[in-house]
Amino acid sequence: MDYLRSFGSAAVSTLVQKSGLNLPFSLGAKVYSCETFWTLYDATKREDGSLVSVFEYDLTHPLNKSTIPLARNSLRKLRTIRHPDVLRYIDVVESDSAICIMTERVRPLHLALSQSSSNVPREREDWLIWGLHRISVALAFLNDSASSTHGNARPNAIFITPSGEWKLGGFEVLSNPKDDLSVIYTMGGLMPDAMACAPPEVKKEGWSALKDVPVSAADGYALGLLLHAVFNPTHPPLPTAQPPHPPPQVSSRGAIPLSVFPSFKKLLNPNAKSRMSPKNLLDIGMAESGGEGHGFFVHNRLVKVCAGLDGFTLSSESDKASLLRTLKESASSFPPEFVSYRILPCLASALEFGGASAATIVPLVLQFGKNVAPDDYGSVVVAPLVKLFASADRGTRIALLDSLPEFVEKLDKKTVVDKIWPNLQTGFTDTVAVIREATVRAIVLLSPKLSDRILNNDLLRHLARLQSDPEASIRTNTCILIGRLGPSLGYNTKRKVLVPAFSMSLRDSFVHARVAGVMAFMATAECFEIEDVASKVVPAILGATLDKEKLVRDQAFKAVELFVKRLEAHASTMPETASTEDGGDDLPARLPGAYTQAGLVNSATGAAAALTGWAVSSLGKKLAPADMQTTISSTIEGSTLTPTINGSANHLPVTPVSPSANPVRSKGLQLGGNKAPTSTLADEVANEAGQGRSWNDDLIDINADEGDWSAFESAPPAVESKLASTTDGLGFGISLRPSSPIPDEWGAMASSSRPTSRSSTSRPSQISRTLSPQPRRSIVPSPLAPAFSPASSTRSTPISSPRPLPNTADNTPPTSMAGMSKEEKAAEMARRKEERRLRIEKLKEQKKNAAAAGKV
Known about the structure:
The protein is α+β, with helices and mostly antiparallel strands. The protein is built from 33 helices and twelve strands. This is Protein kinase domain-containing protein.
């Protein structure tokens, strides 16, 4: 009750209160009332929510008691008579107080006539003739097939559906002469304003006179009056309707077409036996030839279209093509309601059941859809097209995908995810390449309406397969699609997918696929982290700069320029140096001049020269003052040096393994030959010490090892190995290790600058041993010697740690990790790290003790 009252109709509430019934529909607003006889309501069917109409006969009204048999007759006839042009019965609710007949949604003819008065005259005439054709068909069916007389064919008995089609109702006096329950002969006069459409014989002798005339006589006369009423709604009633019933004059034709007027006069013939019947009017109107006054139905556009749509699936291909051509040419002239509810459903049905070429019909559906009201577009146009995505016909699928741009904006996200995507994704694996490619192109339009799960999972799996498709165009379009989807992908998906996908396209054999890969990198430039740009993106594109095709090379250089500018912009915001744990504040002071901002080089030759000078000069800067006067071979002399403290060196004895070896003066490369005098170097060291540089500055960099911790388990490397490892560790393939015997002039340079007091204890250099094999010597450290190497203590260059030389191994070789399991290797590495840490701590402690002793 409350739900019904919400519609604002007091009459509806009263109706339900009187009936006390549980209605199968929800009543809406009142539409029309035929005096007190019946009332028309809009309604909604509770079962499925479809729109319906309800005719309510109020049996309790005092004026309606005598017409109750007419109401029951109308119900009985509607139940039993089914015809496309007759009002369609759905359900009924009966009680002692009311009869509620539920039918399809309709509105009275006179309301439709008033709304169509502003239409173009030609279109209005076509619509009226089409409507009269439908009523003629319905009356002919009742007269001939049902052998009955309608007896009430007037404007308030005709209703218009949402599609604009005319439907015949008003069955209150519909009677068969052979039926014992016929009411027209005894109760025809009880209808409201019954004599307005009564034929002359009835006005003269009463309704019983119809028993002696053809069953179509009364309906033919009423059809003539209806024809005049619809074409001339503002004209007064015709004089021929009153005695002595003169024939209609040409002056009274009004808007009635000339082709229809001869038949109009025959319908109003006062003689019932000579009067034209609805069936005869139909035959004349459908005649292809016959002269003037014939063919007014068959040549009507709407009549032809409806006839073609009704038999579309059974028509020949030529008839189908002719109908579709007519529809395309006249699309803009059809009434909007006719397009929405008559043409479009028939075309969609033809597509669904394979009635015609989808490539022709789908564009036609969208063309007609432009004239559909926005509120109806979803149900009239979009819903049938979405349903067609489930079709297995490839022609239908390709037509839908090609026309997708025209209706994609009308699709909501739920429809795309739930109804379109499950069927659309089958196109990615279709055996026909055209379907696969059209599916890829369609994703560009549908991607904003796809869910995150589909975008980041299901879709990318399909696209990964398509990147290996045999068709080059599909591979190219797939790369372009991934590039367009990039900004909408999830953060983790971008990092995992984009670079591998675009890199795969750069390796494609099809030139345009490679171009697409480069352009995709550029289009998604903002999707990459700056670290990924430097480590992944730029290296991936650089290979394309030497592509065999100039088109690819040019695009690759543009891409490299784009990303390099981005890197430069980011680098300009970074600090000049990053602080380090030990001595980070004075790092710029220790950088060689060639690697400062002022020392940048612009050529390969300059870079090589600067690199060599940097390697040698940085090594010389960090040597202790005492070591500056020794040769590389001094590490195998009879004594070694302890770490330099305040410019002094402590000599520790070393017992050689082979005492019989004759000492040989080395002619190897000497680092002290070109150095400044000892006093000057000592002053520099003192100045550095005065600037607050701690001993820890000279410690080795514990983070500089290249993943091989075995170097810290062997004996301290000799000084000469430091030069070799220094040059090898630059990473550019430049080595200062000589590949041929050292010339004598290098020896002369060394001897001229080396103190004579140390020459007697020198031994062959490590470099000379590398060039000419010598007997292997092992060094046994003295128990008094500290467990660290002077060479290690003076190392602070920014290059990687030296690798251990095979001839400088300790008596206890490091444990080999070959054949170890992953867990055993981890344990061994942990052990070595701990042992190395202990050595460094011991080194620091010894330095502290030595410094304290020096002060004392």
